[in-house]
Amino acid sequence: MKRTMQYIIGLVGLLNIVIGLSFLFNPTKMATEFALSPMGTQGMATMRADFPAFFLTGAIFSLIGAWRADRTPLMVPLTLLTFALLGRFVSIALDGTAPTTVPPMIAEAVMIALLALAYRTFGKPTQP
């Protein structure tokens, strides 16, 4: 089970690397896919800075956790995704819903569930 979770979390990490690098190198396409409207050069700079920071940080710590079968690094993507999902619930409460509301929430919830399962599967960190 531990090896399977390492592969699954590795795939989660790779998916997030692809998304993060896409925001860095093709923000216009990603703006369309994520329903964003960057305003001018500052908007594009924000898309090239903030979104890759989120996705690449989560990805790197997912990959570290998967590689080492260590649960501790998984707290980073778990925290990032939990706050992202929380933000979506706040948005629903304040702004309502749209036909595009649920799919990203499902993606985040699935990643949270997989990371939480890996966290549990990898067990407590070993002491040196």
Question: Would you give an account of this structure?
Answer:
It is built from 5 helices and no strands. It is mainly α. The protein is globular and about 45 Å long.
Summed up, what is this model?
The chain is mostly helical. 80% of the residues lie in helices and 0% in strands.
Strand count: 0
Classification by helices and strands: mainly alpha
* Termini gap: 24 Å
The low-confidence parts are none
Blueprint of the fold:
Elements (H helix, E strand, L loop, with lengths): L1 H24 L1 H7 L6 H29 L6 H21 L6 H21 L6
List keywords for this structure.
80% helix, 128 residues, mainly alpha, single chain, 5 helices
